[in-house]
Amino acid sequence: MVHFGHANALRQAKQMGDYLVVGVHSDEEIMKHKGPPVFSQEERYKMVRAIKWVDEVVENAPYVTTLETLDTYNCDFCVHGDDITTTSDGTDTYHLVKAAERYKECKRTVGISTTDLVGRMLLVTKSHHERDETKGPNKNDLKEVGLSQDGRSPYTGTKQFVPTTKRIAQFSEGHEPKPNDKIVYVAGAFDLFHVGHLDFLEKASQYGDYLIVGIHSDPVVNRYKGSNYPIMNLHERVLSVLTNKYVSEVIIGAPYTVTMQMINDFKIDAVCHGMTPILPDVDGSDPYEIPKEIGIFHRIDSSNDLTSDMIVQRIIRNKFLFEERNKKKEAKEVYIENMIRKQ
């Protein structure tokens, strides 16, 4: 997957230099060294290109970073998080650039990982929602999907992401719209941020100059999605959207219905929605009734029908493979961590 933890590493890497080149591994490389990827390589290439701190993407980047790779793309050094990453045989994937002193580290974002998100999808619980943040997942369930509640690995597990205003500020553009900017508004769950969302936001941004994205709260999303949705809680979804280069501003916990007051307050010129069905509000009303009445509502066909449900179905179809992926990843990290401590 491509999540805000990855984006935060890229943000930190960009601060270390002037031009950020990001290598993205192929499906074949990931399958060999880590296990099945959630997003396809084409989806990951596109997602990384849309992260606002990225200048260039190298497709099919080798799993072990070499000096030749750095030189080919005119890179002075390589950056990775302070977590452990190895090949399938346990080799440090950055040993070559470390030996040449062309390696730097950034801080890993605690509380978010692909392994954790896969575990949430397999658990089918709501313990990750913000309204339930005092509760934890069942310990036996965690073991079943290959996650450790006691956090034996310092990198993989179920440590909860703790949102801060500093992190939101780091991700935010922080600029106001210009006086003559045309302001576009869209709203939704934006759960498990994927290329379907990306293509929609790109199309929506073409309706104006300044794109505001409203992110619905966990209870609101759960009302219209059901089950254990959203998989990512409100603040995780906010950070995911803020990483996107087409997004100018985010409304945290946006109301489900777009009111005239909201349109006036934010000086909204266009309200856009994708091709997914529009479900009524709790009182049975159309949440886009007012934008439709005043002629600023637009339906957008992004030509991409990927949904968060489809992402979850990918996981469920390959449940055993992903459970084994989680178990092997944590076991490898625990082993390496123990070896480091013994040195």
TrEMBL record:
Keywords: Lipid biosynthesis, Lipid metabolism, Nucleotidyltransferase, Phospholipid biosynthesis, Phospholipid metabolism, Transferase. Residues 127-159 are annotated as: Disordered. InterPro entries: CCT, Cyt_trans-like, Ect1/PCYT2, Rossmann-like_a/b/a_fold. Pfam families: CTP_transf_like (PF01467). One of its GO terms (cellular component) is cytoplasm. GO terms for biological process: phosphatidylethanolamine biosynthetic process. Residues 1-118, 186-278 form the Cytidyltransferase-like domain. Residues 127-144 have a biased composition (Basic and acidic residues). Its EC number is 2.7.7.14. GO terms for molecular function: ethanolamine-phosphate cytidylyltransferase activity. Pathway: Phospholipid metabolism; phosphatidylethanolamine biosynthesis; phosphatidylethanolamine from ethanolamine: step 2/3; Lipid metabolism. Belongs to the cytidylyltransferase family. NCBIfam families: cyt_tran_rel. This is ethanolamine-phosphate cytidylyltransferase. It comes from Paralvinella palmiformis.
